[in-house]
Amino acid sequence: MFSDAEISVFLDELDEKIEVISDGFLQLERAGESPEVVQEIFRAAHTIKGSSAIMGYDKMSALTHEMENLFDRIRQGELRVTSEMIDVLFEALDTLKLLRDKVVGGDADVDIDPIMAKLGKYFRGESDQESGPAESQPLSVSSGGESENEPELTDAEIEIIREALLRGLNAYRIRVILDPDCQMKNVRAFMVFDRLEGMGEVIKSEPPAEQLEEGEFDREFDLVAVSEKTADELRQKILGIAEIEDARVTPVRVSDDEFTSTTSSNAEEEASLAASKTANAAADKKADGPSGMATPKTVRTVRISVDKLDNLMNLVGELVIERTRLDRFAELMESGQKSDELVDTISEISNHLGQVTGNLQDEIMKARMLPINQVFSRFPRMVRDIAHKLGKEINLVIEGRETELDRNIIEIIGEPLLHLVRNAIDHGIETAEERRQLGKPVTGMLKLKAYHEENHIVIIVEDDGRGIDPAKVKQAAIQKGVVDAESAERMSDKDAIDLIFRPGFSTAAEVSDLSGRGVGMDVVRNQIEQINGTVDVKSSPGKGTQFIIKLPLTLAIIRALMVSLANKIYAFPLANVQETIQITCNEIQLVKDREVIVVRGSVLPLVRLAELFGERSEAKDKLSVVIIGTAENMVGVVVDYLIGEQEIVIKSLGKYLGRIPGLSGATILGDGNVALIVDVQALVQEFTRKEDKVSACAS
Amino acid sequence: MTEEVRSREEQIVVFELSGQIYGVGIADVWEIIRMEKITRVPKAPEFVEGIINLRGRIVPIIDLRKRFHLPEGEQTKSSRIIIVQVGEMTVGMIVDAVHEVLSVSMDSMKPPPPVVGGVDAEFLRGIVLRDDRLIIMLNLDKVLQKDEQEQLRETQDILKRAAQ
Predict the structure, then answer these.
(1) What percent of chain A has pLDDT over 70?
(2) Among A512, A660, A667, B77, which one is most buried in terms of CB atoms within 10 A?
(3) What domain count does chain A have?
(4) Quick check: A317 and B56 CB within 8 A?
(5) Which of A33-37, A428-432, B106-110, B111-115 has the largest mean confidence?
(6) A557 reaches B (C-beta below 8 A)
(7) Do residue A339 and residue A279 come from a single domain?
(8) ∠ CA A93-A96-A98 to the nearest 5 degrees?
(9) Total beta-carbon pairs less than 8 A apart between chain A and chain B
């Protein structure tokens, strides 16, 4: 059996992915099909499938496998999303949630066959209209009194509201009335949407959002939204927008009985009957409430928002500074009037205060840290199971489980590690038979290792399998259109192996239950880079592969390249800096009126930071260029001088300034001055967009 | 409710800006500091002077003259930054001088005329008379609210992002 801690990690991930899927479905429904959303849902389903299989939740794994298949079809363009399909998908999601509840102690037996059948129909492409989900009438929804011209809610929307209410959120109908002489109705409507999206979610609008955006409405429009805020708070926020005359916010209530009765009255077929059973089960569970026997298991911890911990950290920072001042003051007094009792007492207090603040700082830092075992501990079972399935013999070695990491990082690192481990077993380590023929030990070795190195945590995933063959990688990359034959020819073995991190690349010839659908390495790298980490791969064919992940100790502190521009200091997060070079002005070329430079055969757009930030920069013959981005998307940024590397603490620019384009925050330097942190990812995105399109067409 | 509110005295921080005397409620004032080096933030609104390091916290500083569209003035030895905290926002406001903390009774507050000393009435709470001096009470919520143009700019940003 799994320990509570393991189940809790699994559940956390599950909840997160369920949310991704649910958001994705909503987006599909609202905004239609988009490749990003489909990909996101697909990945989420893929992850749940994998981890639930490890945990032994077969039904969940089977259901998500079917969802994954369906979205794979959609992804490939073989299927189109229809509104009818979305209904089925939501039903599948509900079943998934019931399965989830079962993990935490729900005792209702969940029957997945009906929904599997429905999903399967799409998957096998035999969707016939007749056997689609029974059309249910719009549900009666009671809201606080007035009901003139209110938008009717569909089943799916009611389901969203019901869920929101369960999660402790509130649902509201909002009627927004604009000033009679409002000039830009569409802009105001958009701002209302934007404000609401910041505080919750808009699930319906009447007239629909597209019409609102075009300004095709009279003075009023109706919205249905869920939010954790109170009606009054929402109202105030909306009224904060100019040219809004009034906003009426009334709570929405959904009654359970109505829901179940309508569903079952329409259930004519076996499938829908079963579906209503599930719905009934859900309703029963709700009715049981907290007093019912199905009390979820919980780990005895308190969840604290990271914001709160950050605040505490800031307060401690202030305390440290004041303590230093007190210290200096005590010293001054000491040197002035010797051995006064009062002075002695003050020094003593100052010393003690110093110790206490130091401890406090450590404790708060520690409160954000968790041992990596939280992630590692789910691997032994998983490795055993997969190895068994594939007829491989694998000895899993885990080292450094006690290594501590920031909790934010722990939360994110699980998934990429899972992929790496799966890949190692699936593609890396050979079968026992193969190994015997090669003269290798029959039992393959898979090693997970974590340790501190300077200010990093290093995690190594190592196997002694067949390794990665650069030639094969090149071949596959050319075939998939990831690179052209010519540039592949020029690549070093190391660069060739790095191709596995490119989007759309996967060497597995067949689709297996475990990995190898191209959901692989690009996602792994993205996730690691998101937390300012790096991932490297070393491999020797026939001997094995080693993935080296370097992560920062905490997300609040990063290494940065400091540069100066117009006598001010700016920081580039080092994780996003490729290299720095010096160029002369005549190395700059013009392509379509944009400045570019050529670095080792690749053409990079050149950005002058001074121009971007409206600063006056010195005219120089030699220019310092910081090359930022990833191997595929690089941008050269011209700065005045390079200063050097430094550790910086990331601070936000605060609520008042909000998002400033081009900046991701600020930091305080050793001398107390403030330096701004450049938003490298946004820069790269903005200046490589054109190239993106080209490569998207090519792949 | 009127009785209680009326009899309540409010402590206010009195400061000078462009020759006029202003006041803000002391409850909103976090602290008052001398002028210090301000780091300009590119692409921030025009009245934002930049950010400072307030004992480890990053605090944005606005120039009240620019905010109120008053003629520009020089910074002098008596210039101060009043750090105010409204809601979740902490912002520093540059003023010409800080005079004193006064206790004034709010029932003497009169609604502001449309424009006082060149400042739009929407930024003002009212006017308090004290010892023959007129003190203009600021409405910090409005002062710290991003104005119309800002909102528009933000919207355009959003639209641009949405279009991509």
Answers:
(1) 81
(2) A667
(3) 5
(4) yes
(5) A428-432
(6) no
(7) no
(8) 115
(9) 87
User: Are A517 and A377 part of one and the same domain?
Assistant: yes
Helix (H, G, I), strand (E, B) or coil at A25: helix
pLDDT in tens, A61-102: 888 888 888 888 888 888 888 878 888 888 888 888 888 888
Angle at CA of residue A412, ends A407 and A416, nearest 5°: 140
Name the residue among B44, B144, B151 with its Cβ closest to that of A242: B151
Q: Do B56 and A613 touch (CB under 8 A)?
A: no
The answer to whether the CB atoms of A651 and B58 lie below 8 A apart is: yes
The alpha-carbon radius of gyration of chain A (Å, integer) is 29
For A213, nearest residue in chain B (alpha carbons): B159
Please answer yes or no on whether B58 and A653 come within 8 Å at the CB atom.
Answer: yes
Q: Give residue A368's pLDDT.
A: 74
Q: Is residue A78 part of a domain?
A: yes
Beta bridge mates, B100: B14
Residues A321 and A415 in one domain: no
**Nearest partner of B52 among B90, B100, B105, judged by Cα:** B90
Q: What tens digit of pLDDT does each residue of A263-293 get? A: 333 333 333 334 444 444 444 444 443 433 4
Shared domain check, A387 and A243: no
Residue B60 has pLDDT above 90, yes or no: yes
Per-residue model confidence as pLDDT tens digits over A400-427: 988 888 877 888 888 889 888 988 888 8
The mean pLDDT value for A363-370 works out to 77
User: A468 and A599, same structural domain?
Assistant: no
Q: Which residue is closest to B58 within chain A, CA to CA?
A: A653
Can you give the CATH number for the domain in which A610 is found?
A: 2.40.50.180
Same domain, A544 and A673: no
> First vs last Cα of chain B: how many Å apart?
53
- Residues A249, A229 contacting (CB under 8 angstroms): no
**φ, ψ (nearest 5 deg) of residue A377:** -65, -15
- Rounded Cα–Cα distance for residues A625 and A632 (Å): 18
Mean pLDDT of A482-501: 82
**A580 & A518 share domain:** no
Q: What's the complex ipTM?
A: 0.81
Is A171 a member of any domain?
Answer: yes
Q: How confident is the model at residue A547 (pLDDT cuts 50, 70, 90)?
A: very high
- Residue A206: the pLDDT is 80
Q: Are B63 and B80 in contact (CB under 8 A)?
A: no
B90 in A contact zone (CB under 8 Å): yes
Interchain CB contact of A584 with B (< 8 Å): no
Q: Quote the tokens at residue A646.
A: 């430094």
User: Residue A624 has which token pair?
Assistant: 């310092």
CA distance B14 to chain A (A): 24
Kindly list the catalytic residues of A. Answer: 46, 68, 423
* Structural domain for A322, as ranges: 306-367
pLDDT at B79: 92
The number of CA neighbours under 13 Å toward the Cβ of B124 is: 22
Residue partners of A326: CB distance under 8 A and separation at least 6? A346, A349, A350, A353
Stretch (H or E) spanning A416: helix A407-423
CB A223 within 8 A of CB A176: yes
Residue A684 in domain: yes
Q: Which CATH number does the domain housing residue A237 bear?
A: 3.30.70.1110
CATH number at residue A99: 1.20.120.160
A304 reaches B (C-beta below 8 A): no
3-state secondary structure A120-157: HHHHCCCCCCCCCCCCCCCCCCEECCCCCCCCCCCHHH
| DSSP label of B164 | -
| Claim to verify: residue A523 and residue A600 sit in the same structural domain | no
Question: What's the gap in Å between the CA of B152 and the closest CA on chain A?
Answer: 8
Residue A296 located in a structural domain? no
Map out the domains of chain B with their CATH numbers: 2-163 (2.40.50.180)
